Amino acid sequence: ECYVQNTAREYAKIYAAEAEPLEGFGEVPEIIPIFLVHRPANNIPYATVEEELVGEFVKYSVRDGKEVNFLRRDSEAGQKCCTFQHWVYEKTNGSLLVTDLQGVGMKLTDVGIATLAKGYKGFKGNCSISFIEQFRALHQCNKYCEMLGLKSLRTTHQKQRKATSMKSKNLPNSSTIKKTLPKKAREPRDFISSEH
Q: Where on the tree of life does the source sit, at the highest rank (predicted)?
């Protein structure tokens, strides 16, 4: 937990250094640090400690990318969190995504990181690769993405889909493939349903 959040924090610092000087960008989301404390005399010898966030706690993004949250889409903090995700995605060539962004205002905590299966520069995240795929498919650029000069994911995603559909068009269709199934395989089978 500490490793993931503090790694995301380092990306957020680099993002802030690029975004804050831009005219009109304003405040940038900050991922607060988290510390691991060893308490040998306690029944639970390890604990994490971080700054207490006071105010309305908002989920600006969720791990699986499916939840539609108006505060995420319409608020300044939400838009800047989406831009941060896009920025990290682009900087790592689509290999890493900071996700599960949540907190109070511009202060974020308890984030997650998704990486490709092989990881990214020796780092493996704590979220499924499917979060990267969903982000690529669902992200909508906003004015902050444009201010940072980030490339639209729609164009990239559409190109990938076209390439895939072109490949499938070059494959022979099922009518040109001679099917040879054993006689048993062609007979109807009885299926037994069971509940697990």
A: Eukaryota
Contact residues for 180 (Cβ-Cβ < 8 A; gap 6+): none
Domains in the chain: ranges and CATH = 1-148 (3.20.200.10)
Single out the residue of 67, 63, 58, 84 nearest to residue 141, CA to CA. 84
Classify residue 68 by burial, with Cβ atoms within 10 Å: 0-12, 13-18, 19+.
exposed
User: For the chain, what percentages of helix, strand and coil (3-state, to nearest 5) are there?
Assistant: 40, 15, 45
Tens of pLDDT, residues 72-90: 667 899 999 999 999 999 9
Give tens-digit pLDDT for 130-145. 889 888 888 889 999 9
Distance of CA 159 to the CA centre of its chain: 20
CA proximity to 72, closest of 85, 88, 59, 86: 59
Q: Specify whether 100 is catalytic.
A: yes
Alpha carbons 183 and 33: distance in angstroms, whole number: 65
How many CB atoms are located within 10 Å of the residue 31 CB? 25
Q: How far is CA 71 from CA 5, 53, 88, in A?
A: 22, 18, 21
